[in-house]
């Protein structure tokens, strides 16, 4: 089967996330970027499309223009999947319109601004049965997939404790300046939703906790930090988690952890061992056992699971990075579109984004109600 024709919304000239998605889409030779809308200013979009050596007739003014003109093309030329890389508030209307027109969708997180919007997308996607991926990027790392496999196989026994931490310090230069914190879209509820820190990076940690353990979080108790009274959105927080079978965990997320860059760590402890992983050192998965020396598992070796090795593109000793992780997600989407069997967890589905939005809203609700336990909906 030929390459899947991919369109992109957003992700233009100055976008870090745009670079990540374009590299990921090309990594396994499964997608071909053919057009899209890269910027709200059409001239900028055209210029960027020219830089990517795309046909200028496929660089559209807006989403309406793209859908209308793509519909007139022969079936073997039409865009088949679209990546939504715009700010949060545009995710829902764009994804909804794409789903209603039969497109497969790859959407940045958080999925939407509200949980209700996410439920609407879920209903539409279930009716038309297209592929919908939410890019919780870190689930694509080979050693995270190894971690998931080992836990599922019972190699650390019954889970007793889950600890996920995501610390950054990037918002420090903005949050302490009244004018700057008032003028960034990340701290604008109209554009970002009700949460900054939990909505941006806390949702990654929440998704990861469920992904690697295979368990759902049933309840949350949150204590969030806004730092200034005129700041409407959290920039730091701690959330206690209760999973199925009353398994307990903790989620710590911060964007004011001074000096931290992208410190995302995942730790799961069972009654027969523990596993630890750090995003800044993604090649190492640490296995802990009582009375035994620490074991370090690395990607590319035969002792790893088939699922881990499938997402490993380099020989042992060569670093696997975030581009590879996102590339693995795009590969999983491609295989799903092409109707070939894939491992469960090959890409985060719309339901993962739906659960993420539920988590964000219930976490904020828990904090506002005086740090109380709140049940998550099924």
TrEMBL record:
Any one GO molecular-function label of the UniProt entry: nucleotide binding
Residue ranges constituting the Gfo/Idh/MocA-like oxidoreductase N-terminal domain according to the UniProt record: 5-136
UniProt cross-references to Pfam families, sorted A to Z: GFO_IDH_MocA (PF01408), GFO_IDH_MocA_C3 (PF22725)
Positions of the GFO/IDH/MocA-like oxidoreductase domain: 144-275
Superkingdom per UniProt: Bacteria
InterPro entries: Gfo/Idh/MocA-like_OxRdtase_N, Gfo/Idh/MocA_oxidoreduct, GFO_IDH_MocA-like_dom, NAD(P)-bd_dom_sf
Protein name: Gfo/Idh/MocA family oxidoreductase
Organism: Christiangramia sediminis
């Amino acid at each position: 089967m030929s390459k899947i024709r991919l369109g992109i919304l957003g992700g233009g000239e100055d976008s870090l996330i745009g670079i990540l998605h374009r590299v990921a889409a090309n990594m396994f030779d499964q997608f071909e970027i053919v057009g899209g809308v890269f910027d709200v200013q059409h001239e900028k979009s055209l210029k960027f499309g020219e830089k990517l050596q795309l046909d200028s007739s496929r660089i559209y003014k807006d989403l309406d223009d793209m859908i209308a003109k793509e519909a007139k093309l022969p079936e073997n030329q039409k865009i088949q999947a679209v990546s939504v890389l715009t700010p949060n508030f545009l995710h829902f209307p764009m994804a909804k319109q794409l789903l209603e027109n039969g497109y497969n969708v790859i959407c940045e997180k958080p999925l939407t601004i509200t949980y209700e919007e996410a439920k609407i997308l879920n209903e539409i996607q279930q009716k038309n049965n297209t592929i919908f991926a939410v890019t919780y990027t870190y689930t694509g790392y080979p050693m995270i997939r190894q971690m998931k496999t080992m836990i599922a196989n019972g190699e650390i026994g019954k889970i007793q404790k889950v600890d996920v931490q995501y610390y950054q310090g990037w918002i420090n230069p903005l949050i302490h300046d009244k004018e700057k914190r008032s003028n960034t879209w990340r701290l604008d509820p109209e554009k970002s939703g009700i949460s900054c820190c939990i909505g941006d990076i806390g949702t990654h940690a929440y998704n990861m906790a469920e992904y690697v353990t295979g368990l759902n979080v049933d309840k949350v108790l949150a204590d969030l930090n806004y730092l200034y009274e005129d700041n409407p959105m959290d920039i730091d927080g701690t959330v206690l988690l209760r999973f199925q079978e009353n398994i307990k965990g903790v989620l710590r997320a911060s964007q004011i952890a001074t000096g931290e860059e992208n410190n995302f760590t995942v730790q799961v402890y069972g009654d027969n061992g523990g596993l630890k992983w750090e995003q800044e050192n993604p090649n190492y998965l640490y296995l802990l056992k009582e009375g035994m020396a620490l074991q370090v598992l690395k990607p590319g070796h035969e002792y790893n699971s088939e699922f881990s090795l499938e997402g490993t593109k380099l020989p042992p000793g060569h670093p696997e990075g975030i581009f590879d992780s996102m590339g693995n997600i795009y590969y999983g989407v491609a295989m799903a579109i092409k109707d070939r069997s894939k491992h469960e967890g090959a890409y985060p589905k719309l339901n993962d984004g739906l659960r993420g939005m539920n988590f964000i809203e219930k976490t904020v609700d828990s904090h506002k109600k005086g740090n109380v336990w709140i049940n998550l909906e099924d």
